[in-house]
Each structure stands twice: as C-alpha cells, then as structure tokens.
Design brief:
About 25% of the residues lie in helices and about 25% in strands. By secondary structure, the protein is of the alpha/beta class. It has four domains: about 240 residues, 3-Layer(aba) Sandwich (Rossmann fold), CATH 3.40.50; about 150 residues, Immunoglobulin-like (Sandwich); about 120 residues, Immunoglobulins (Immunoglobulin-like); about 210 residues, Rossmann fold (3-Layer(aba) Sandwich). It has a seven-stranded mixed beta sheet, with helices on both faces. A seven-stranded mixed beta sheet has the order 32-31-33-34-41-40-38, sandwiched between helices. Strands 20, 22, 24, 26, 27 and 30 form a six-stranded mixed beta sheet that branches. α6 packs across α8 and α7 crosses α8.
C-alpha cells in the first residue's frame, strides 16, 4: 500500500482529512507504484496492530502484510513516546512526543502502514500494568482504542505483547495488550461507548492474535506460523530491507544505524489467538479479503483482476478506460466506509495513470488570522487518452467559487490565482492533543473526531473540480510554500518540486521568556524578562504577565512597537515572590490588533522528519525557595541534551560550556565544579581519552558531578575514578519513600539541609539506570524503591578522590530541574558545592 493510504482512514477520519474530496496526487508517480496501488485496490483485507510506544511496532509484519498481501494495515501506538529520552537533542516530554509522532509517520511511509494513537501519555517506565491503567484512566484510553477499531474496521487485530503480566515486562506493554483485547470485545457492542455512534458504527473484528513470537507465542503448541519473508513484487526489495529502513526512522531512540539491507528468504513469525474465531493456518483464516465480500462486488473483483493483468507499466494511461468502468460500478454500490475509501483509492489510481497533478502554492507557509492569501493553483495532465477539463476551484474564504470549464492540454500546466480571506478567529496551528492542559496520564482533546489521528488535519484545503471523460472528480490540495525562483514559469513539476512547508497559522508575534524556570528567595524581587519578536511588520500592542495570587508584577502592562519582521523587544517586569516558599506558573499575554496572544514559538529541525512548529503557551515556572550554594564557576559538559546548564545559571552560577578539548589543566582551571550531562558516555567520542585529566582535576580539589548513563552502548568502561557497574534498574514511582543512608554526609547537609520534604513534588520517576555494584570507596547516600521491591542504593554515590569529590547520580535531575522542583535544586546545589568553603 502506498503513502496515500498511510494518510487516510475511513469514516470520521476521512471526513476530518479530506472533507469530501481526494487528497492531492503526487507528480510523476512511478508505474511500479501505480501497479502496487492497483493490486491493493483489489484487496479488502485489513489488520490493526497494537502496541504501546513508537518502536514497539512489528515493522516486518506491517511490511509483509501491506506490500506482500496488499492489506490495509495500521499501527495503533497507545502513546507517542513522550516519556522517553532523546539521543539526538534536548527535547523531551511533549516536544519529544511530537518528534516521535513524525518518526512513526516517516516509518509508515516506508513500510506502507497507517498510523493511529490514543490520548495516553507515556509517563516513563512502569513496572505494573495496573499502575499504567490507573494513571492513563483506563476507561478513556479504552474508549480511544474502540474508536480506532470502529474507524479503521480491521478484519484481524494483533498485539506485540502478551496481556498476561510478566516479570520484567514494561507495564505499558502489557497494558497495551490488555486494552487491545478488551476493545476487541467491545467495539462491536452498540451499548459500549455510544457517544462514538454519532459518526461511527460498531465493528467486530474476526479475531485478535498476539504476534511476532513475543510473549511466548513461538513456544505455544497452538501457535500459527507464517512466513513474513520475501520481497516486494514490483521493486524486488526484500521485505526485511524495507522494514529495516522503516525501523531506522526511530532515530531519537538510537535506531538510526539499523541497516535497511536483508535477504528475501523465509522469515517465520508465530501468532496465538487471544480472542474471537479460531485459526489454524493463517491469521486471516475464514476471511474473504476480495471484493466479493461486498454485495454486488463480485463483478468488480473480476474486472479489477483483468485490469491488473493488462496493466502496462510502459503506458499506464492505457488502463484509464477500464478503470473508469470500474469506477462506475463502484459508484453504484451502497454506501459503506470501506467502499468509500476504495472509491478514493481508485480515483487516485486513475489520476496517477493520467499523470494528472494539482498544486496549491503560496509564497509564505506561515499565515496570520485575518490575512488575505494569494494562491497559485495549478493542474497538469500528461496523457491524452481521455479528455480532461478543469471545471472550477473552491476553498473556504473565497468570495465565490471559481468557474472555469477549461480543457487541459497534455504537458501544459494550467494555472489560476485565487485570493482567500482568513477569518480573524482562525485557530493557531498546534498539535491537537497539546491545545489544552493535559490531565494526569491523558491528553485532553476537545473535538472527539480528532482522537486517533496522528496529526492535525490540514488547516486549509483547496478543492479542484475536474471532469475526466465526462465523469466528475474532486481533488483536494493542501497549500504549501513554494520557492519563488524554483517555481518560475508556472511548470507544475517545478512548482511541486520546490514545494516545502505546509501552511501554518501563526500569531503576528512570538513571546519568549529568558529561561524556563526563574528562582526566587522568599519575598525577593527579581526581574523577569520577556522577548517579543515580530512575525509581521508593524506589530504593535501591549504585554502583560498573568501571575497567581501572592505574586506581584510591576508594571501591570507595557507597550511595544516592532517595525520589521524579526525585530525584537525585550521587556522587563519586576516580580515579587511570596514571603513563604511557593511555586507558580506565570504566563505572558500580548494584545495585538484587538486579539490576545499567549504563545511562544518552538522550531524543531531534524533531517529525517519534516520541520516542526509548536506554539505552546509562553510561560515560566517561578519558584520561591530557600537555596544556598557554594562556588562560583561551573563547567558543563553536555551529553545527549538537557537544560541543566540553564538551571545552574538560575542558581546563580557562572556556567562555562565545555567540549572534550577543554578537558585539560588550563581548560579546567578556575572551575569550582564540572557537571557532565546525561548519557554523555553513550553519545560522545571525545571524552574517554581525556578522562585522566578530569580525574587529576578532582584529585587536586575539584568536584565532578556525573549524571546517568545507559549501561548499553558506553563509549568506555571507565567513566569514573572508581569502578561502577550500571544496570537497567530504576525507581519509577516519583513519590517513593527516600531513606538517608549517610545522613551526616555533606551532600545532605551543606549548604542546604536536605530532608524528606525535598523529595516531594518530583515528576515521572526518582531515577534510572542505577549502578548495582561499586567500589567500596563510594558512599551510597540514598535508598529508595518501588512498592513491593527492595530499595535501591545506587541512585546517588559520592567518593573522595584525592582532595576533591566525584559524584555519580541516576536521579533524574534533568526532568526535575526543568520542572522547577524545589528539592531537586537544593540537592543539586549541595552536590555542586561539595568541598567548597564559600
């Protein structure tokens, strides 16, 4: 199945994505892709695959089913992977979830599947499915899984994991299978989640299986074994190669080096039936996957088979008359979600055979509510086998539809400009699941029809009305930015080749605080700065800060006027903290042209995914706390990416960013401490050779604080002066009790007296990848454990080395500091202060 099918789903998803028209076709589709699509049109089998996270999907199975059997195949990832870590950069949390969403979309474009999600938030590693389902809100996530089943309407469902809890199994994994099995049983029941039935109908899949040999399927005596090996019929590429390329898109998880190579030989996977009708030979036993399953569809199956047999890759247009005849027969069938989808698929095949392309382009991808857009709309056809007319153009915001009736000439682009007036209240672009504050473990979505979609529907769709050999077609195009030089001459190929970003609705200004956290002493007055950047010329208005009761802001508002795009104004407010320790969220709000905007701007760029623009609320976490520190200058050696250097600056330290080349006596001179970023010894190649110099710095009285590394993929076995053995052990309960093993140690007493209160309000977890064995010259400071488990003692280890201190910690300070957790700042200050008198 093609990338076209990876973008669509039936029923509500079709309505949300296309609103009555076909998606725009791509230019110059290779004949092999058209042939693949034609074969897929003749097959009506569907499989929904369910697991918990990005990278949990069985890409070999998806590839085999979509490209080998031509089924509709989709992957439902219960979460977007927002609780993981990022080996490529500093993004985590919601930003990481958006990146991994795009990585999954990129993977599906390769293996031919589609992508769905629930609203569940990945909150990090869970040791229990019971904990997982409690935090996620079991009923709500179950509703989402049922919604996806009713939307996609699969014949068969598969899970990656067993629904039976097992020691060492991620609770999210087990929970995904539990939800899949329960949803399988409920999706066909009209009494279950009746709120879906305004737009959807009940759907009962034939069976649900646990697949891929995971969770004991391979050893089960009743397991079904199928060969998922082989090669793509048209390209000749082995399925193992395609699935490897698909999996390699999970680059934020370190899968970028997975080879896309592989042979086309046998590759067996096992499946066991978890529910529904039994199967003995194949997951699709007893299921008609042809058009004959549709009343009146037998003749369509016959003619489609003839069309496949007669398809000429050297002349795809020769198939158009037969395809138009099939279209007439499909149009006569009663309405059905699957048939409706197949109608769209057939229309795309016809357009591809004709070499017919459409494009709606604009000079700038970013638009502001209330603006008027000028779009260049272009149609090109490359075959004269049947007459084609461009009848008209429709779009929201047009004063009136454009009536044309223009006969198209082969290989000559027809273009017409259209102006669209955007409404002043048009919502700003932001992933739909991030538009509201989330609940614990669950994103809030105000429009139920969006639930399940991988990303937002297009902000705007242009409808091209066409007549092909007397038949009416409607093709939709999402406006995209086009390079003005590349698009000169109006040639559609050049226009489409130059097309870049999709249309985004943005505010006329972007707001940004100088940091994500601002620390205050109780009752202290500090300046809080907000940068206002113009995204349109002549941006003028006023800015205010919205603070909760107990926090005072002066002045109440400040004016700004920015003449040119990218002009910036930095406005400073005096903020007074409450007399007692407290935490607050302070939001910036600008009024421009009578409308209020509260958005920051986050641009994310990685080569393997499209550019990402986020417009979250512009806010800062203000924390009033009693914080003491010692030392003045700290060196920070970045790892895989975090914001700890900024937290050190907020604590009052002068921070020097270090590279491996700075690990010399001169480079470390004058530093009171060196902090090493998370996973530095997993991702950096410039540290191992310089470690001895770092150890000498400690021996002479320096202080090094090393944050956690993963046990796998270490660049060196010696990353500390005394031996440590890392593990995958962790404490996942962020509220787990903490015992002080060395209560008199200076890391717990100086300059801040640490108590159990300092471990309140932590987020996601206590710590990860704890050492389990260490040299007896290390002192274990803390012990903590998840319910029912022995406490772990490796979360914070401190050693004297010569005249200085070396600290190793698996505590997740990179999460806690960015979240403004007061106790994390106090303990971190003590670690940095070790050995310092003032």
């Amino acid at each position: 199945m093609s990338a076209f099918l990876s973008l669509i789903a039936v029923s509500a998803v079709l309505a949300a994505n296309f609103q009555g028209g076909m998606p725009n076709s791509a230019p110059a589709i290779p004949a092999s892709s058209i042939a693949q699509e034609l074969r897929a049109f003749g097959v009506l089998g569907s499989v929904l695959h369910i697991a918990a996270h990005p990278d949990d999907e069985n890409t070999q199975l998806i590839t085999y089913l979509s490209r080998g059997r031509h089924y509709r195949v989709a992957y439902l990832s219960v979460t977007r992977g927002d609780g993981g870590q990022n080996v490529l950069g500093p993004e985590f949390g919601e930003e990481l979830g958006v990146i991994r969403t795009q990585e999954l979309m990129a993977a599906r474009r390769i293996d031919g599947g589609r992508q769905f999600f629930t609203r569940a938030i990945d909150f990090g590693y869970s040791k229990s499915p019971d904990e997982t389902l409690r935090i996620w809100d079991r009923r709500q996530v179950l509703s989402d899984v049922v919604r996806v089943i009713r939307t996609f309407r699969p014949d068969v469902m598969t899970t990656s994991f067993s629904p039976e809890p097992a020691r060492g199994q991620h609770g999210h994994h087990t929970a995904s299978a539990i939800l899949g099995l329960e949803a399988f049983k409920l999706a066909g029941d009209s009494k279950a989640f009746p709120e879906h039935l305004d737009t959807l109908t009940p759907w009962q899949a034939r069976r649900i299986l646990m697949g891929g040999g995971r969770g004991g399927a391979a050893e089960n005596a009743q397991a079904i074994r199928i060969d998922v090996g082989g090669a793509d019929l048209l390209s000749g590429e082995p399925f193992s190669s395609i699935s490897g390329r698909s999996r390699s898109q999970h680059k934020t998880q370190g899968f970028g080096n997975i080879s896309g190579r592989g042979g086309g030989g046998p590759s067996f996977q096992s499946f066991v039936v978890l529910g529904g009708a039994p199967a003995t030979v194949d997951p699709m036993d007893g299921i008609d996957t042809t058009w004959a399953r549709i009343p009146g569809g037998a003749e369509i199956a016959k003619i489609t088979g003839e069309a496949i047999e007669k398809f000429d890759p050297n002349n795809p247009a020769a198939s158009v008359p037969m395809l138009l005849a099939i279209r007439t027969r499909v149009a006569a069938l009663p309405g059905d979600a699957l048939v409706d989808e197949k109608r769209l698929q057939l229309d795309k095949i016809i357009l591809d055979c004709l070499g017919l392309t459409v494009a709606a382009t604009l000079r700038q991808a970013e638009v502001v509510p209330g603006e008027t857009l000028t779009l260049r709309n272009t149609v090109t056809v490359r075959s004269a086998v049947v007459p084609v007319k461009w009848q008209g153009l429709r779009a929201p915001g047009m004063a009136r539809p454009l009536q044309l009736g223009e006969a198209l000439r082969v290989n000559q682009s027809a273009s017409h400009d259209a102006q669209l007036k955007l409404t002043s209240d048009m919502p700003l672009s932001q992933p739909y699941w991030l538009r509201e504050e989330p609940a614990t473990g669950l994103y809030r979505v105000d429009k139920p029809g969006l639930i399940g979609l991988p990303e937002n529907p297009p902000a705007l769709l242009i409808r091209f009305d066409l007549e092909i050999d007397g038949r009416q077609f409607t093709v939709t195009a999402e406006p995209v930015q086009v390079d003005s030089e590349a698009g000169k001459g109006g040639n559609a190929d050049r226009l489409l080749a130059a097309a870049g970003r999709k249309l985004e609705v943005v505010a006329p200004i972007a707001l940004a605080f100088a940091s994500e956290v601002r620390l205050f002493a109780p009752a202290a007055v500090r300046n809080v700065e907000v940068e206002v950047r113009a995204l349109r010329p002549g941006a003028a208005g006023s800015l205010r800060l919205d603070a909760p009761t107990g926090w005072q802001v002066v002045p109440s508002a400040q004016p700004f006027r920015l003449a040119k795009v990218d002009d910036k104004a930095r406005l400073s407010f005096q903020v007074t903290a409450p007399a007692q320790p407290a935490a607050a969220v302070i939001t910036a709000e600008a009024e421009v042209g009578g409308r209020r905007y509260r958005t920051a701007r986050v641009d994310i760029h990685y080569e393997h995914i499209p550019p990402i623009l986020l417009q979250p609320l512009a806010r800062i976490r203000a924390v009033s706390l009693d914080l003491q520190k010692r030392g003045r200058r700290v060196g920070y050696l970045p790892g895989a990416g975090d914001s700890v250097a900024g937290a050190l600056a907020q604590m009052g330290y002068e921070v020097k960013l270090l590279t491996g080349a700075d690990l010399t006596a001169d480079g470390l001179s004058g530093l009171d401490a060196v902090v090493i970023g998370v996973r530095a010894f997993n991702v950096r190649d410039d540290l191992a050779a310089r470690l001895q110099t770092l150890f000498e710095y400690v021996k002479a009285g320096g202080n090094v604080l090393e944050q956690y590394n993963r046990p796998n993929g270490l660049k060196t076995d010696q990353f500390a002066p005394y031996s440590l053995r890392l593990s995958n052990d962790r404490v996942t309960d962020e509220n787990a009790a903490v015992t002080f093993l060395a209560p008199g140690h200076p890391v717990l007493t100086t300059p801040n007296k640490i108590s159990s209160a300092d471990f309140e309000g932590w987020i996601q977890e206590r710590g990860i990848y704890y050492p389990t064995q260490w040299d007896d010259r290390w002192t274990a400071i803390l012990a903590s454990g998840d319910p029912g488990e022995e406490p772990l003692k490796g979360g914070l280890l401190v050693a004297r080395y010569g005249e200085g201190y070396f600290v190793y910690t698996g505590l997740v300070f990179f999460r806690e500091l960015s979240a403004g957790v007061p106790g994390a700042y106090r303990l971190f200050a003590n670690m940095v202060s070790l050995g310092k008198e003032k």
